[in-house]
Write a structure and sequence with these properties.
By secondary structure, the protein is α/β, with parallel strands linked by helices. It contains 26 helices and 21 strands. β17 (605-609) and β18 (612-615) form a beta hairpin. The longest helix has 25 residues, at 13-37. The chain is globular. 43% of the residues are buried. Bound molecules: adenosine-5'-diphosphate and magnesium ion. It is an enzyme of class 3 (hydrolase).
Length: 678
């Protein structure tokens, strides 16, 4: 028989093949050499024997010493996956989980998603029965406790970047501490920057701390003499000062607070560069890195800088410890970070000064290659007198609804005595309990309800799960599941649906009368139109939408839908996303949609008063964000709507509400949420 899978080699082709083979071998060689050159490599045996002896080990080491990429591989090589169990390493950030998994798959010469994979929310790239090493966000591992409270599929767990003290990491550590007794075979490695190591050790019954001495060259620290009024401009000036006075090679890393700032600085740098074109200066290559940056652009920061060129990496906090970028010699640090905080129903994403521990970490990024320099855009006095010592753990400044629900559903009712590195305030806990009661997740005794259990099962915030639940079961709003799942999927990605910089006039031209409705209804319209147009890229381009985001929305939608099927919200054969209600008018459909959202977000409602819109629960006045469809409507219409339901209230320059839908009838509140509004 003929075998058409066999390649028939043309003359000369075999030498090409050999070349390709050699290239591959060389690549593997360099990868293996790089691995051996990392500081942790020298401590491989010591580390492995400590792990054999101690159930819990804290590992402390400089960023870039190889903790994240190497330790899990050591465990695999040492046989921790031989009995069919997995090794898992958690990351606080999605980007870190995906990029490290890709790197490690490369190092182990396997396909990403097979032996080595990652699992982040709405994106699972692992293969059951085949994946032996998983990188996961800490939040995803936390969710695994729901199905498997002993985490029995893992032989070793590495909680990486533990010093970041995310909410999920803290809860994970508490839960893991609880299963160590029963899972004597389980190994737990907590890796951290220096700042919190002893605290972790104390928490884990004084377990040993393994210190991996890193390579670190001295870093010269420079401060400004006066506080900087505009740190973005100061950073730009500093970039050019370095570029024009310092010799190559030596890349620059600038720490900024978020995507907007990064994009704005990138634009300005590129503008100035175009004016410098043709001068004697060598090239400057600007590369951004932030959490929402599409994956294919992320790889750029790891590519070696071309000769005669200097790389300027504009990064968020992500480059502080999570990602190691080689070649950095100069760090520019304005000393700010964007921090989420939450109290009394208001989220704030505020730019706050970094802690001393953070700015020291940042400075350290300049000293990996050789002696480096760090330019702090604040004063020395401020460093010593104004900065906090360490960052405030997330558990003390965030909404606890979701974790409280998770703990309750795991049978942990005594929240006050649950072991935690830092205990949240009782007011935070009671606020979470109140919120959960309001949406029906708990009954008046504080016991988890059937609906509450369903909310736990969905891979989204309990509030959204409630909205989905209502669209199936609540008498006055059922029948709109498909639309609700679509809108919720769109809301997950709402800040990157339109191409950046799309203004209101353009939007009005593109979306016409939909700009007279609401964000929710516009999202629904967009998705349904896109679906009707075969999910086409061209259609997205025509409507100035980001096709990549829309594809993510599609995948989120499919996954949420799968859960709806699993929980019997919908029968398996009813997979179409067409309207289940035959004789429903658009107005009735919208009414049902709004009521579903009220059931999940009963207190995210603002009422029109003499002072404009004020929140119906805490009375705070709120402003519709200019990016919202409602903003356009309020500008155009004479008669504003009485109520606005919003998905987020974010204090930036003002208390802005985003992703809004409006309604006129107070009865909708009383009818949907009688226990709150009667
Ligand atoms: P640590 O966790 O101790 O900070 P890592 O294991 O993340 O260290 O990094 C070890 C080395 O691997 C670093 O030199 C880093 O540059 C390199 N590395 C990590 N990820 C990648 C990647 N995606 N591409 C190329 N090199 C990488
Ligand atoms: Mg790391």
């Amino acid at each position: 028989f003929t075998d058409d899978t066999t390649d028939i080699l043309e003359p000369g082709e075999d030498s090409k093949l050999a070349e390709a083979l050699e290239e591959q071998i060389n690549k593997m060689k360099t990868i293996q050499e790089t691995r051996k050159s990392l500081p942790v490599y020298q401590y491989r045996e010591d580390l492995l024997s400590s792990i054999r002896q101690h159930q819990v080990l804290i590992v402390v080491g400089e960023t870039g010493s190889g903790k994240t990429t190497q330790l899990p591989q050591f465990l695999v090589e040492d046989g921790y996956t031989n009995d069919g169990k997995c090794v898992v390493c958690t990351q606080p950030r999605r980007v870190a989980a995906t990029s490290v998994a890709a790197r490690v798959a490369d190092e182990m010469d396997v396909f990403l998603g097979k032996e080595v994979g990652y699992n982040i929310r709405f994106d699972d790239r692992t293969t059951p029965d085949r994946t032996i090493l998983k990188y996961m966000t800490d939040g995803m591992l936390l969710r695994e406790f729901l199905n498997d409270p002993q985490l029995s599929s893992y032989s070793a767990i590495m909680i990486d970047e533990a010093h970041e003290r995310t909410l999920s990491t803290d809860i994970l550590l508490g839960l893991l501490r609880g299963i160590l007794q029963e899972r004597k075979d389980l190994r737990l490695i907590i890796s951290s920057a220096t700042m919190n190591a002893t605290k972790f050790s104390k928490f884990f019954f004084n377990c040993p701390i393994f210190n991996v001495p890193g390579r670190r060259f001295p870093v010269d620290i420079h401060y400004t003499l006066q506080p900087e009024g505009n740190y973005l401009n100061a950073a730009i000036t500093t970039v050019f000062q370095i570029h024009t006075t310092q010799r190559l090679p030596g890349d620059i890393l600038v720490f900024l607070t978020g995507q907007e700032e990064i994009e704005s600085m990138q634009t300005k740098l590129v503008e100035i560069l175009s004016k410098l074109d043709g001068t004697k200066f060598s090239d400057l290559m600007v590369v951004p890195i932030y959490a929402n940056l599409p994956q294919e652009h992320q790889a750029k920061i790891f590519e070696p800088t071309p000769k005669n060129c200097r790389k300027v990496v504009l990064a968020t906090n992500i480059a502080e410890t999570s990602l190691t970028i080689n070649g950095i010699k100069y760090v520019i640090d304005p000393g700010f970070v964007k921090e989420q905080s939450y109290s009394g129903g208001i989220s704030k994403l505020v730019t706050v000064p970094c802690s001393r521990a953070s700015v020291d970490q940042r400075a350290g990024r300049a000293g990996r290659l050789g002696p480096g320099k760090c330019f702090r855009l604040f004063t020395k006095w401020s460093y010593f007198n104004e900065l906090e010592k360490v960052p405030k753990p997330e558990i003390l400044r965030t909404k606890l609804n979701q974790v409280v629900l998770l703990l309750l559903s795991l049978g942990i009712n005594d929240l006050l005595h649950f072991p935690m590195l830092d205990k949240p305030k009782t007011t935070q806990l009671s606020e979470a309990l109140d919120n959960l009661y309001a949406i029906g997740a708990l009954n008046s005794k504080g016991t988890i309800t059937k609906v509450g259990q369903v909310m736990c099962d969905f891979p989204c915030e309990p509030e959204y799960a409630k909205v989905i639940y209502s669209s199936v079961f609540e008498e006055n709003c059922k029948g709109v599941l498909s639309q609700i799942v679509t809108i919720i999927s769109m809301l997950q990605e709402s800040n990157s649906i339109f191409i950046p910089g799309l203004n209101r006039e353009e939007k009005t031209k593109l979306f016409g009368s939909m700009m007279q409705s609401s964000d929710h209804m516009l999202y629904l319209w967009i998705y349904e139109q896109w679906e009707e147009n075969g999910f086409s890229q061209k259609w997205c381009r025509d409507f100035k939408l980001q096709h990549k985001t829309m594809k993510r929305v599609l995948s989120i939608r499919q996954q949420l839908w799968k859960y709806c099927v699993k929980l019997h919200f919908i029968s398996k054969d009813n997979q179409s996303s067409s309207n289940a209600l035959e004789n429903t008018s658009p107005a009735m459909l919208e009414a049902k949609i709004i009521k579903c959202f009220i059931s999940g977000f009963p207190t995210n409602v603002a009422r029109l008063s003499n002072q404009g819109y004020t929140n119906i629960k805490h009375g705070l006045s709120v402003t519709v964000h200019p990016s919202s469809v409602i903003f356009t409507r309020l500008k155009n219409e004479g008669k504003p709507m009485k109520f606005i339901l919003y998905q987020s209230l974010m204090l930036t320059s003002k208390e802005f509400i985003r992703d809004c839908i409006t309604f006129d009838k107070y009865e909708w509140l009383t009818e949907t949420m009688p226990h709150l509004y009667k």
